[in-house]
Amino acid sequence: MEINDRKKTVSFSQATMYGDCQYKWYLTYVKKLGSGDSNVHMVFGNAMHVVLQNYLEVMYKESTKVADTLDLHQMLHDELSKEFIETSKSMGKHVASKDELVEFYMDGVAILEFFKKHRADYFNKKGFELIGIEIPLRIDTPRNTVFQGYIDIAIKDISGKIKIIDFKTSTMGWRDYQKKDDNKTSQIVLYKKFYADKFGISIDLIDVEFIILKRKLYENVDFPQKRIQRFTPASGKQTINQTVQKLNEFINACFTESGLYNDDRKYLKTDEEKKCKYCEYYKDSAVCGGPKNI
User: Fold this and answer.
1) Residue 91 CB neighbours (<10 A)
2) Residues 117, 122, 123, CA angle at the centre, nearest 5°?
């Protein structure tokens, strides 16, 4: 008889990994072979999140004037150093070279300068209030599992309309194919659904938006470019239902009724070799060795 006294936690990143490659998810979560591999992009993304969230918290809770006195460059430097040290320690190796860290830091400074200059285009204090930052979501899901996630920032206007915002760092922004990629956009759709469920709020009162922070700009172009890109994905009831269904399909395929990992099935490898490029298992032929299912 199966016994599971503690619910397994599922996250959007798990579901995304499974959608990209079932076998990678199996090796990571069932066989526990993953090293928790991280890289400089993740270190940078985490640092930028902290800096912008701190600025916005001061802006909404105190004033824009006070927020503008914050030394964002120093904050970014400190957060990058902290993330680099902690991640490198947990990985047992340096996740970036000194030159890479300097490059990412300078990219971050350019983003922050643009943000301060154009902040009102993205975040306006007048008529808005801060609901929270890093709002935890912990929602019961099928097969004795629980979904866990964190909302970057949520604000509310005077009409009671709520906006859930997710920061994403990107090399040069999102193009059309990225905006159409469910693996990128479904996360905030799930957050909208689960936030509404958790707090008993009508879905119709919640909007969602990605704020995309671009490290690089195109060179030698005649049109003006912005360091920050806004994108609002489809998040109507049909999209929400499809997204929740996809999450439940992942859970039902990968967990038993009592919430244990399902080891009694075959997990397929992706048939898209481009998805293998940065996979740690792809490098080890004894563990994986490629995208073909034999």
Assistant:
1) 14
2) 95
Identify the DSSP state of 229.
E
Indicate whether 4 belongs to any domain: no
Q: What is the largest CA-CA distance in the chain?
A: 68
List all residues 6 or more positions away from 180 whose beta carbon is below 8 Å from its beta carbon.
none
- For residue 151, the enclosing domain spans 127-259
**C-alpha to C-alpha distance for 120 and 149, rounded to whole angstroms:** 28
The answer as to whether 168 is a domain residue is: yes
Residue with tokens 């707090």: 199
Q: What is the model's pLDDT at position 150? A: 97
For 65-74, what is the mean pLDDT?
98
Enter the pTM of the model.
Answer: 0.92
Token couple for 131: 């609901």
Has residue 182 been placed in a domain?
yes
Check whether 36 has a pLDDT greater than 80: no
Burial of 143 from C-beta contacts in 10 A (0-12 / 13-18 / 19+):
buried
For residue 61, is it within any domain? yes
Residue 185 has pLDDT above 50, yes or no: yes
In this predicted structure, the answer to whether residue 290 has a pLDDT above a threshold of 80 is no
Q: Does one domain contain both 177 and 55? A: no
CA atoms within 13 Å, Cβ hemisphere of 5: 0
Q: Are residues 171 and 199 in the same domain?
A: yes
The answer, yes or no, to whether residue 294 has pLDDT greater than 50, is: no
- HSE of 222, CA atoms in CB hemisphere, 13 A: 0
